[in-house]
Design brief:
two-stranded antiparallel ribbon, Flagellin_N, 389 residues, Flagellin, 10% strand
């Protein structure tokens, strides 16, 4: 046996093993306290990269679910407002059918018209106040695909609502040639006329379209009087005024004044066509190259229009419902992916407590033994002193 004093190899080896076991004990304690098997890249560089990729996926999918929930919330708000708008349209439809009852008096029709107008104004209010944060959902204008709901015309913008071949130009209006209406409503004029005896009252609106240079009005027959007139060659942006004073019912054919019937006065292309009623004094002003039609009360067009609007609102509600279902499906799919990715990340990065506890116990026992051996190894040089005695 070689006895060395300057170099105690036994003590050096014992010190080395004590250091190694001590590092393993510290690593096990860190893993058990943090729950992570790779708290730093030095633990497992490849697993750290995988764990980071999993973390990126989890972050994206989690935020995607939040975004989908925001979309569902927005769709629910819009669907609720559209439901109330549709209820108002149904009530307006009922009022329109009620207005076709000839037994109603003028005051009754005025009341129906007031409620009808209030319903449309309420729909506008709902559309303008349906917000998600600061975003106006129903009247939001964007180049992206979406839905846009407007319940009545507004100045300066497109002024027609198309449902099939029918175009809504006024609350009580029917286009005599609806397929040819291609312009924009420049002004919507409400004419409040009092009772006109047995012949009822007239509600009219006017539409200016196309680019024509001629317009005219002619009377084929008058029940009383001999007044006829014509207007032609309208210059661009010029103003022409037609006065009809004390005109009786205007008829194409000779009819009795007591029948209460009114007839359409037809004209050539670009003609001023309209209804007249008993003892009506009116002044009509217009400025354009062509005045296409004057519309009278027409229940069938109003009902068709309201039915079309209600159908459109219902279609939008169905579309919103489908969008909500699609978003819910996306959330379920993302949630399933999140669960699977978390499971994969857990296998890569999380601590297996059972395995790590066994390692810690083993290393602690080895560390205690190594410390004991190291303590004895440091005493080996003392044997040399006994040789000197």
């Amino acid at each position: 046996m070689t006895l060395l004093v300057n170099t105690n190899m036994t003590a050096l080896q014992g010190q080395y093993y004590v250091q190694q076991i001590s590092d393993q004990v510290n690593s096990s304690i860190e893993k058990l306290t943090t729950g992570s098997r790779i708290s730093s890249a030095r633990n497992d560089a490849a697993s750290v990269q995988l764990a980071d990729l999993f973390d990126t996926q989890l972050t994206g999918l989690t935020q995607a679910n939040r975004n989908a929930n925001y979309g569902i919330a927005m769709a629910q708000i819009a669907e609720g407002s559209l439901s109330e708008i549709n209820n108002n349209l149904q009530r307006a439809y009922q009022l329109s059918v009620m207005g076709g009852n000839r037994s109603l008096e003028s005051s009754d029709r005025v009341a129906l018209g007031d409620e009808f107008k209030t319903l449309l104004e309420t729909n506008n209010l709902i559309a303008n106040n349906t917000l998600f944060g600061s975003i106006n959902i129903l009247n939001y204008e964007s180049n992206e695909e979406g839905f846009l709901i407007k319940s009545r015309p507004e100045p300066g913008g497109p002024q027609t609502v198309t449902t099939g071949n029918a175009i809504l130009t006024s609350l009580f209006g029917k286009a005599l040639n609806s397929d040819n209406i291609t312009g924009q409503m420049l002004s919507l004029v409400s004419i409040n006329l009092g009772a006109t005896g047995d012949l009822g009252k007239m509600v009219a609106a006017y539409m200016l379209i196309n680019n024509q240079s001629d317009a005219g009005v002619a009377a084929d027959a008058l029940l009383t009087g001999t007044r006829t007139g014509a207007i032609s060659t309208l210059a661009t942006n010029s103003a022409v005024q037609l006065d009809i004073d004390e005109m009786n019912t205007l008829l194409v054919n000779e009819l009795s004044a007591q029948t209460g019937q009114s007839a359409v006065v037809t004209g050539a292309a670009g003609a001023f066509t309209g209804f007249a009623d008993t003892d009506v004094h009116s002044t009509i002003g217009f400025s354009d190259q062509q005045l296409n039609q004057i519309y009278g009360f027409s229940t069938d067009t109003l009902l068709d229009t309201l039915s079309g609007l209600s159908t459109e609102v219902t279609n939008q509600r169905s579309r919103l419902g489908a969008e909500q279902n699609g978003l819910l499906s996306t959330i379920r799919s993302n949630t399933n992916s999140i669960v699977n990715i978390k499971d994969a990340r857990s296998r890569v990065a999380d601590t297996d407590f059972a395995t790590e506890t066994v390692k810690l116990t083993r290393n602690q026992i080895l560390l205690q033994g190594a410390n004991t051996i190291l303590s004895q190894a440091t005493q080996t040089p003392n044997i040399a002193l006994s040789l000197l005695r």
